Amino acid sequence: MIDLLTGMLSTAVLAGGVLALAALGEVLAERVGVTNLGVEGLMSMGAVVAIITVVATPNPWLGLLAATLAGAAGGMVFAFATVIVRANQVLCGLAVTFLGLGLSASIGHDYAGVPSPATFGRVPVPGLSSLPVIGPAFFGQNLPVYLIYLVLPAMAHWVMFHTRHGLAMRAVGENPAAADAAGLPVTALRFWYVTLGAGLAGAAGGYLTLTYVPVWSEGLVAGRGWIALALVIFAGYRPFGATLSGLLFGLITALSFVGQARNWPIAPAFLNMLPYLGTIAFIIVPVVVWHRMRRIMAAPAALGVPYHRDVR
Amino acid sequence: MAGTLQRQPTVTPARRLGWRAGAVVTALAITTLFLALSGRDPRLLADLVVRSTVGSRFGLEDLALFLTPLLLTGAAVTVTGRIGVWNIGAEGQFYAGAIGATAVGLFLPGPSWLVLPLMAASGIACGMGWILVPALARAYAGVNEIITTLLLNFVAGLLTTYLAVGPWHDRVTGALASTGRLPVRIPEIWGVVHWGFPIALAIVLALAWLTTRTRWGYQITIGGANEQAARYAGIPVRARILGVMLLSGGLAALAGMFEVAGTVHRLQGGLANNFGYFGIVVAVLARGSCLNVLPAALLMAFILNAGIVLQTQQLTSSAVLAITGLVLFMIAIADELAHYRPVTVRPTTTRPATGAEARP
Questions:
Q1: Contact at 8 Å (CB) between A206 and A47?
Q2: Best label site of A22, A24, A189, B234, fewest CB within 10 Å?
Q3: Could you tell me the superkingdom of the organism this chain comes from (chain B) (predicted)?
Q4: Which tens digits make up the pLDDT trace of A93-123?
Q5: Per the CB < 8 Å rule, is B332 touching A37?
Q6: What is the CATH number of domain B41-312?
Q7: How close is the nearest chain A Cα to the Cα of B321, in Å?
Q8: Which DSSP string corresponds to A223-256?
Q9: ipTM for the complex?
Q10: Which residue among A85, A90, A284 places its CB closest to the CB of B337?
Q11: Domains in chain A and their CATH numbers?
Q12: Do B142 and A109 touch (CB under 8 A)?
């Protein structure tokens, strides 16, 4: 039983890390008022670029870097269309998803089924990693886990809520006209935060193929980008909210593995549905049960609205 | 005299069409460039595409087969768009419709004139059921429907594969991941084109009438344009959102029923072939008008049919998805750019204070 819990928690941390990283990226983009529905495609690009990089140079950090850059490049294209040209964000997001899924499958055609030659190894923290149950899960993981669960959200939280720059960033997402009148560079802030968020989505894809599912295949991302998008709502657009909800959904994913491993009398197909159904339940139930939730978890006021200085 | 660009609030249809044509041409030019860079002869491919789509009878039949589900899924996404709701879950409702239809077709013996309508009814009911929870959550709790409808697509895909591999698996011929052949089929009218095609056409025309010429359609347009004003005017916006989303689920499900009973004849994983997602592209091209779904679906069917040809030339099916994404991306940009017109600023020293400039 203890072994089972330990294994489940370890899987949850790994599976959740992918979602947490992508959700954190989307939090950055949505806080400046841009919905990037292209996460699924960007993650797919990141995943395939990471594999291609580590096949060429067996260094997982280079793979993760390449995945981040691929995501950021895709994000720049998206940000050019939505922030500079100010085209419809839903359409551009769907287009980036189609493009990313199609391109990654085309590029990755020759790499299908090739196991990743280099992955992030486990780096146990001395002493702590031998704690029962939580030791291996939280202190016996690879290094990026700490980056995803602690360093990045802490940085994002500090910048967002404790600096002047963070105030400017949130103002742009709440009321771009007022921010503009106060002299803030609305377009630049939106452009770079969307790009940064897309870079994290690419990194999430790379993290997926460098640790959790170390082999490329078409459809590998399997809706994780969309789950990450839903987690942003569930997280109330907060960095640590994104991290925690990522971990929660990692647990749900791990639950379906445990079910299959222990031969629960449920078909694996139904266990595989759990993360999707869980996500739906988690974004519907809170607002139905507790009405104040809507105000606490409110989206940035200008989310999804392009800002035209000359048209009021 | 200084020239500058000014954003116009409205765009004439001709102007938009011109920009969009430019967008499609740009997207195809980029595709051609990529094909040429990867060592293929674009002219040879273009020739092949034309001959095997509009240039031959078989090509035209295939085009009509692609067109049938696209008309319905395109209309499904278009009707919800009219009330300001995105149904990204047409793919899942398509599967639900196929599952509902297959359940009746496999397990209810009877003459086809009786079984086929029952299959359609069962399929439509399943599709409506599939969108019911997202629709209720959107209408009465304001929950983002893009994500809820989309996530159900993955559930529907898993359920279909489970049924095709598990309980409904064809044990007679042992075909991989597929149910047995359905005992009934939609009769053909022209080559391999079945009656689903004219029915889908008629449904789209009926929807065009319903959305633009009836009280119900008017209420939906107003609800989509300004929800607060519509509610103030006494329009039951929530009930309309629910109704439109259920209609949308039913339409996508009917596409699934046609596909399983008219074209594929068995339920199998991957049956939906991204038709639900391509329905979104059709709806975007149609810009909320059900009548425009006809030319939009035709363009999409042409791209998909061309994709089949490209697959015979060692290109993966995913290349078609990327090309579709590129077309969609270019059109999104063109739609916005169409708003801008060059204006020349007259060198007046003082601006005349007339009331005219307050109006857009």
A1: yes
A2: B234
A3: Bacteria
A4: 989 999 999 999 888 888 888 887 777 877 7
A5: no
A6: 1.10.3470.10
A7: 5
A8: THHHHHHHHHHHTTT-HHHHHHHHHHHHHHHHHH
A9: 0.88
A10: A85
A11: 2-117+144-296 (1.10.3470)
A12: no
